[in-house]
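Dear Dr. K.,

Following up on our conversation at the group meeting, I've run the structure prediction for Cyclase from Actinokineospora fastidiosa. I'm pasting the input sequence below exactly as I used it, so you can double-check it against your construct before we proceed with anything downstream. Let me know if the numbering doesn't match what you have in your notebook.
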Amino acid sequence: MRIIDLSTPIDAEVWEPNPVVHKVMSCAEGGRHMADGMKERHGIDFDPSVLPDGELLSLDTMTLTTHTGTHVDAPSHYGTRAAYGTPRHIDQMPLEWFIGPGVVLDISDAPVGAVGADVLRREFDRIGYLPRPRDIVLLRTGADLLSGTPKYFTDFVGLDAEATHLLLDLGVLVIGTDAFSLDAPFPNMLERYRATGDRSVLWPAHFVGREREYCQIERLANLDQVPSTGFTVSCLPVKIARAGAGWARAVALLDD
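The predicted structure tokens came back this morning:
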């Protein structure tokens, strides 16, 4: 079995709209931290200098959102109410949703904005495959090449409501993208809204989640390295209680 990493990193050294703070307690600092804690909480004296090189364990502390790096959006991310009942948080979602046959749809030739169902249907015809229930559909936009730069958040293509409904009609429960969002970039949506006054152009793919239960995987990578079909996706989200999203180490599994 060959494993292809489909994830983008969480990196405090690159540009993010919500900056990441990453503080590292060194191994030496970890030894002193442990000794201070043992003294304070248990009254035990310990000299960390007896440890190898005076070091114990490092400790990383991070401040970030659950939407940093590759992550899975839960239904509760889309709103507090839904037509089907109370939206579930990420820790409540069935794990079976996040391991299954993968399908890559290449929409990288589309301009910045949102594509419709017609574009997806043409891609079904091109690859000779119609997604089936529980397939995990991944959209290759090519935006992952911009990851870590401001353009990653403004120059990509997403789905409109009709395209999202099409995939859900086929029984897909998880839709992924290598772009920042499954919707079009915010500046693009705002420009179209100001020009038309049509509210339906604002986050249509996300808001379909208020009508029908499904999950998104955003900020994937390396979709150009996997075939259109014939592989398995694993994108299990971190179990964060009452959260609208969870980080995931998404991978493609291919039989050699």
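Two things stood out to me. The chain has a mean pLDDT of 96. The longest helix spans residues 27-42.

Best regards,
J.T.
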